[in-house]
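Why does residue order matter? Because the sequence determines the fold. Keep that principle in mind as you read this record.
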Amino acid sequence: MNLIESIIMGIIQGVTEFLPVSSSGHLAIFKNFFGLSEVGISFDILLHVGTLVAVFICFWKDIWELIVNGVGIIVDVCKNIGYFFMNLVNGKKESGKKEYIKVISTPYRRYVMLIIIATIPTGIMGILLKDTIEAVSMALLVPGICLLITSVLLLIADKAKDGNENESNASYKKAGIIGICQGFATMPGISRSGTTITACLMAGMERAFAVKFSFIVSIPAILGAAVLDLPDMFTESISAAQWANYVVGMAISAVVGYICIKTMLQVVRKKKFKGFSIYCAIMGLVAVIGYFVM
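Structure:
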């Protein structure tokens, strides 16, 4: 893969990871049409790292608060475990009993729990579907069909009513369902952002929070996928020049991803998914037709 192809794939990753048109589907289509099936897993991992950097830059305040409150949850849980054993030792002595700490005491702590609950089903499905996803990504038919599904999901998102749930009152059950939806979005052609934003809106979340939750919940999902692929990364033989091309592609995906996150914040507020839906339908049809004629 030369430098120009690396730059193009970086742009595709940055645009399609956050705009609701499926990065995996577009990368699979691009690789098939331009004969880049030999491009290894290392480049895919670096492209996703680039888009993760974009998420961290855009939402660094929220992410920092989530980290701080996540650590706080762990500390308070440990304290409560200690209090439990102290109370066992003290027995019925009321004077010696310790009051348990309310662990989920702030909206951001609740936010942490929402992300954890959403991540669990995504992680399980990612592990179970890993081999299947790698197999179906080699052909154009599956990404094409999945892009058509994404088109329908985006039309649903456009019709969704404005909700009023956020980190303060969103239910854990709905977070789990959103996590399952994100798990299905590991299929090439199913847009992760489009799927999770649609799921969030259908769950009654505020539009601004739906976008934020969708992008932040992608962090453990993308990191988890990268960790699963790391063993394969070390089996590849890559030259120094190729690594340089890979790094350029990663940097491009980060810059373009940042711009697209900002764009999506406006798109969701203004309910303008129809154009993306039409685009996904066209690309899906192109991929399906390409499968039968190539």
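The radius of gyration is 21 Å.
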